[in-house]
């Protein structure tokens, strides 16, 4: 009788955990889908580094291959990139894919 009670309790516990995992996965999938749809339907304010071309820099900038904060600063007219982006701890540690905030202070050259 005691074994059956323990088995029932273990079964109940495992089914509750499994249900919780399914709910978490469902919520995460729903959030990812909604975020992707919102990204597709809204106008983009993100600029990727080497795709900049002749356009002005956007508020959100994604660092491209071979770019430095100095080249981005000159390109976008923002000399205070490090001060505006507290997640950049070392100005020399900039890598492709890093997202930074751009606030132009003077026109591009």
Total DSSP E strands: 3
Provide the CATH top-level class of the largest domain.
Alpha Beta
Give the second-level CATH assignment, the architecture of the largest domain.
Roll
Annotation field: number of helices: 3
Low-confidence stretches: none
Number of structural domains: 2
Helix % is 40-55%
* Strand order, largest beta sheet: 1-2-3
Protein name: LysM domain-containing protein
Pfam families: LysM
Domain LysM: 61-103
InterPro entries: LysM, LysM_dom_sf
Annotation keywords:
single chain, 109 residues, mainly alpha, Membrane-bound Lytic Murein Transglycosylase D, Chain A, 2 domains, 3-stranded mixed beta sheet, 3 strands, 48% helix, 8% strand, LysM, LysM domain-containing protein, signal, LysM_dom_sf
Report on the structure:
The chain has 109 residues and is mainly alpha-helical. It has 2 domains: 1-42; 46-101, Roll (Membrane-bound Lytic Murein Transglycosylase D, Chain A). It is 48% helix and 8% strand. It has 3 helices and 3 strands. It has a 3-stranded mixed sheet with strand order 1-2-3, with no helix packed on it. The mean pLDDT is 76.
Quick summary:
The protein has helices at 2-41, 69-76, 81-84; strands at 46-48, 60-62, 99-101.
């Amino acid at each position: 009788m005691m074994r059956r009670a323990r088995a029932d309790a273990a079964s109940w516990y495992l089914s509750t955990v499994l249900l919780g995992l399914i709910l978490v996965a469902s919520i995460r999938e729903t959030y990812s889908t909604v975020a992707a749809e919102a990204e597709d339907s809204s106008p983009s304010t993100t600029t990727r580094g080497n795709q900049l071309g002749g356009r002005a820099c956007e508020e959100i900038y994604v660092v491209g291959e071979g770019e430095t904060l100095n080249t981005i600063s000159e390109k976008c007219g923002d000399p205070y990139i490090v001060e505006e982006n507290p997640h950049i701890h070392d100005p020399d540690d900039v890598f492709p894919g890093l997202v930074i905030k751009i606030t132009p202070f003077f026109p591009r050259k």
